[in-house]
Every structure is written in C-alpha cells, then in structure tokens.
C-alpha cells in the first residue's frame, strides 16, 4: 500500500469539509471505507472529485443500469478489484443480473445497447475515442447528454481505478463492502 488510509485521529476540519456532501455515516472514519479514508489525505482534491463523482452517480442523465455496466467494464479492464467489488453490488441494485455481470468480464452483452456501452468502454480504453459505428448505435438509444455522461463516466472511473491501483487501496472488509 503506497498511500494508506488516513488514521481516524488525523481527521481534522479540512477532512470533514471535504466530505461535507457525504452522509454522516460516510463522514465517520470508521465507516468511510478504505477509498474515502485514503482520498482524504488530500482534502481539496477529494472535495473536487466528489462533486464530479456525485454528478455521475446522482445527477447523470445516464440510466443507473448503463452506468454500472460501463463502470464494471472499466473496473475489469483496469484490473481494479476495489472498484469491481463495490460496483458489483451497485450493479445488482441497478438491475444487472449475475449473468450480465459475468458477461461484462468477457465483453459479452445481451442486447445492442449493452454491446455498444461495452464497446464504448473498450474503445475509449484502447484509443481514447469512440468509433463512428459505436457512436451511431449509442445515438439510436441515448440522447446527446446521456452520451456525454457516458463518456465522462467511463473517464472518471478509469481515472479512479488508476488512483486506486496506484495508491494500493485495499478492498473494504465485508462490513464496509455492504455499504
């Protein structure tokens, strides 16, 4: 672990300010989980990141199911166990079946839109651009803002996976993983 979680006795006002948009439980160092506890070592960056991430999670025009499909493909492609574990639970809550989640790892999808979302992740990961063919398929199902939210979701979770893997953030215990 290169950047360990910030010990609870070092959580100061700047940390609490950085987490001010989180629930009271998530602002508690014992319940925050390893990722937040690591990120708060840089409170200003954490606050800025959370604002962006909250849009993607709670303000995005992209349906939750498609968001989780994309995030899980990113987590798989980036070999980010922390992100994968966390979003398997969220994906299930958003309507992804176990079979769909298993297919994400193989790059397989059940319908045209899901295939286009997985292709968008793969193309952005490989070339930093979505092909015309994939964009056209996405355009048949998603409006412009949804497509924009998809691109930023893939980029945000790719960046987060890089940070998690580089910092050595360990998956949360089962107690935290259920949150």
UniProtKB/TrEMBL annotation:
Span of domain Carboxymuconolactone decarboxylase-like: 43-125
Q: SUPFAM superfamilies of this UniProt entry?
A: AhpD-like
Q: Which Pfam families match?
A: CMD
Q: Which GO terms describe its molecular function?
A: peroxiredoxin activity
Q: Which InterPro entries match?
A: AhpD-like, CMD-like
Gene3D superfamilies xref list: AhpD-like (1.20.1290.10)
Annotated signal peptide = none
Entry's PANTHER family? 4-CARBOXYMUCONOLACTONE DECARBOXYLASE FAMILY PROTEIN (AFU_ORTHOLOGUE AFUA_6G11590), CARBOXYMUCONOLACTONE DECARBOXYLASE-LIKE DOMAIN-CONTAINING PROTEIN
The protein depicted here goes by the name Carboxymuconolactone decarboxylase
């Amino acid at each position: 672990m290169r950047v360990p979680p910030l010990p609870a006795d070092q959580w100061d006002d700047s940390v609490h300010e950085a987490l001010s948009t989180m629930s009271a439980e998530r602002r508690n160092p014992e319940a925050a989980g390893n990722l937040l506890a690591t990120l708060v070592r840089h409170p200003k960056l954490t606050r800025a990141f959370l604002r962006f991430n909250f849009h993607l999670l709670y303000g995005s025009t992209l349906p939750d199911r498609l968001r989780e499909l994309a995030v899980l493909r990113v987590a798989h492609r980036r070999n980010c166990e922390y992100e994968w574990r966390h979003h398997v639970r969220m994906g299930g809550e958003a309507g992804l079946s176990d079979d769909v989640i298993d297919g994400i790892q193989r790059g397989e999808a059940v319908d045209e839109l899901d295939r286009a979302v997985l292709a968008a992740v793969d193309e952005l990961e490989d070339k930093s651009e979505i092909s015309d063919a994939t964009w056209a398929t996405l355009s048949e199902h998603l409006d412009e803002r949804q497509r924009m939210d998809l691109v930023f979701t893939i980029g945000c979770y790719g960046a987060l996976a890089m940070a998690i893997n580089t910092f050595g953030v360990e998956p949360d215990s089962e107690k935290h993983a259920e949150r």
